[in-house]
Amino acid sequence: MVSPTQQTWNIRERKRKKAGSKRKAAMANHGTTVNKEELFKVVEADKPAK
Question: From first to last of its 50 residues, what are the pLDDT tens digits of the chain?
C-alpha cells in the first residue's frame, strides 16, 4: 500500500503535469494569431474634437 506522503507527492506531480493542458491544447489546435479580417480591419476615426 502506498504511504500517504507518496500518494500526496504523486497527486501533486500529476497536477503539475496537467496544469494548463486544456489551454495549451486549444492554442495548439486553434492558434493565437487572429485572422486577416481582424488583423487588418479598418477602424474609423472618431469625429474630430471641436
Answer: 899 999 999 999 999 999 999 999 999 998 888 888 888 888 887 766 66
Indicate the pTM of the whole model.
Answer: 0.48
Q: How far apart are CA 26 and CA 43, in angstroms?
A: 29
Contacts of 33 (CB under 8 A, 6+ apart): 39
Rounded Cα distance, 26 and 20, in Å: 10
> What are the φ and ψ backbone dihedral angles of 11, each rounded to 5 degrees?
-60, -45
Backbone phi, psi, residue 30, to 5°: -115, -15
